[in-house]
Amino acid sequence: MPSDYRDGVTYDRISAPLERNGIEVLERLDLRGDETVLDAGCGSGRVTQALVERLPRGHVIAVDGSPEMIGAARERLGDGAELLVQDLNELDLGARRVDAILSTATFHWLGDHPRLFARLRAVLRTGGQLAAQCGGEGNTAELVDAAGAAGARDPFAGYLGDWPGPWHFPAPSQAAANLRAAGFTDVRTWLVNRPAPYQDLRAWLRVNALTAHLARLPADLHDRYLDEVIRELGPDPTIAYIRLNLDAVAAG
After folding, report:
1. Taking the model in full, what pTM does it have?
2. What count of other Cβ atoms lies within 10 Å of the Cβ of residue 218?
3. Per residue in 108-128, pLDDT tens?
4. By residue range, what is the domain housing residue 33?
């Protein structure tokens, strides 16, 4: 989850579709109930809560780069999980190692996947599981185009015009190669199509999809930029939501 998120309460309110996708990923983990599991990019804690319920004798460490998201997760989870504000590219659990890692809707916000996967491997015990899902090749192509077209125009061009954007949507083969290079085995990567996860398009753009764009703009341009992107998307937008699933095991 990007560190540019500001409004954990609103994000939590609109994130039920993301939660449904995350539960599917959680179900891929083979858990006894006594493991220590890392939620890498926990957001407001919706999927983390389901993970806690799967571990009645275990321990959940939930990490997010945004203090606002960790605050929202703390409201939801109380003392049910250990909550840490950390950049996943700098992930550090000291001498501790976890039995499994869960991540949903996070990795595409991080551009350096070789570094990310190396950090995840470093905190995962040998034989531990990774189950993750993020945006994959072709994800939200219509939004990428609309955000770029709007950002190329004044008064936004000075802030967004030369910026490549915050997202990294890899192909399955690229992700698999990066996982193997980082020390994972039994690697499986595949794409699935899902409905775009919003009921309120403007709210989704503001507190999820375009948070990094808005962070680069002065506050008085935020609404104008959202207006321009929505205009570019058209009156009845269809946004391809293509998810990349990643399953792997930490090699010995």
Report:
1. 0.91
2. 11
3. 999 999 999 999 999 999 999
4. 8-137+167-197+240-250
**Residue 152 belongs to a domain:** no
| Cα–Cα distance for residue pair 214/232, rounded to 1 Å | 17
User: Which domain CATH number covers 25?
Assistant: 3.40.50.150
Tokens 């350096």 locate to: 112
Comparing C-alpha atoms, which of 89, 136, 97, 83 is closest to residue 117? 89
Structure tokens at 211: 């948070």
The alpha carbon torsion through 134, 194, 226, 218 (nearest 10 deg) reads -10
Residue 123 and residue 98 in contact, taking contact as beta carbons nearer than 8 Å: yes
Q: What is the mean pLDDT of residues 38-55?
A: 95
230 located within any domain? no
Predicted local distance difference test score (pLDDT) of residue 1: 42
Instruction: Let me know: does 142 contact 237? Beta carbons within 8 Å.
Output: yes
